[in-house]
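User: Working on a comparison across species. This one is MarR family transcriptional regulator from Mesobacillus jeotgali. Can you predict its structure so I can line it up against the others?
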Amino acid sequence: MDYSMDKAIGSASVRLSKRLTRIINLYLKPYQITTEQWSVLRTLSESDEISQKELSLRSDKDQATLTKILDLLVKQENVERIANPLDRRSFLVKITPKGARIAAEVTPYLEEIFTKITHGIDEERLEIFRNVSLILESNIEKLLEENK
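Assistant: Here's the predicted structure for MarR family transcriptional regulator from Mesobacillus jeotgali:
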């Protein structure tokens, strides 16, 4: 088979990512959150109060993007910023009861959606996909480190 890696991996990954984002945004619309906001809300639902820097690392968002997402989530009363008692220049971020309710409702809902998305793909293939994705991510991280 004659194909380029760029087309087979690069373009295919971008297309898949865009389609996943589009369908998940569609299903998140009734909750008035986006996939970007969901990833932050989900991360916070798994944490106590954490610094914005730590949240940035855990949710894989740069600081500027995270600040915009947090501004929206604070406005929606899904999260709150709390003064950091150890560093007056920074804030801790915490999910609110409203945000926790949304996270508790959305988590199983999205599991159902992903069950539909992965319909027809057996567990072995899903595990291979997950492992290959992790290897690709790791290789990309190494390349990024080399180019710093």
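For your comparison, note: The chain is about 70% helix and 10% strand.

User: Helpful, thanks.
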